[in-house]
Write the C-alpha cells for this entry.
Amino acid sequence: MPSFIDTRSVPHSALNMYKIIADVEQYPQYLPLCEALIVKSREQRRGKDILIADMTVAYKVVRETYSSRVVLDRQKYRVFVESITGPFHHLDNRWTIKEVSANSCEVEFFIDYEFKSRPLQLLMGSMFDYAFHKFSDAFVARAEEVYGKAS
C-alpha cells in the first residue's frame, strides 16, 4: 500500500493555510491531476463541516472519478479525506496544520492509498506518487497567489 508524508514550514498563518486546503472547490484551478471537483453535499456536525465530493483525476488518456467524505475541522486546522466509491480499495488523506507564529505554520500532508485493481495500480501508481510529491508545493503556491509572498 503506497503512502506518502510531507511536512514543511510555511510562511503563512495556520488559518490562511487551512482556508486554502479547505477550499476544495478551487482544487481544479491549481492541483496536479485534479480535472474536476464537485461538492455533492455539505453538512455540519459537532462544529465540523462534512462534505461528500466527487473528484475527477486525469492524466493523458486515463480519467477516474471517485467520491470522498471530507471532514473540515476549522478549530484544529485539520482536513481528513476518505474515499467512498471509485477506483480505490482505500484512500486516507490527512492535512494537519500547526501554528508556529502569527505568520507561519507547519503543514503536514499524509496520504495512504491502494487501488482496487493491480493493473490500475501499475498504470496510475507512479503518476499518483509524482503528483503527491507536488501537492504541498501546489498549496503553498496557491497561498502565495491568494495572500501574497511572505516577506
In short: Residues 62 and 124 are 8 Å apart (CA to CA). Residues 118-147 form the longest helix (30 residues).
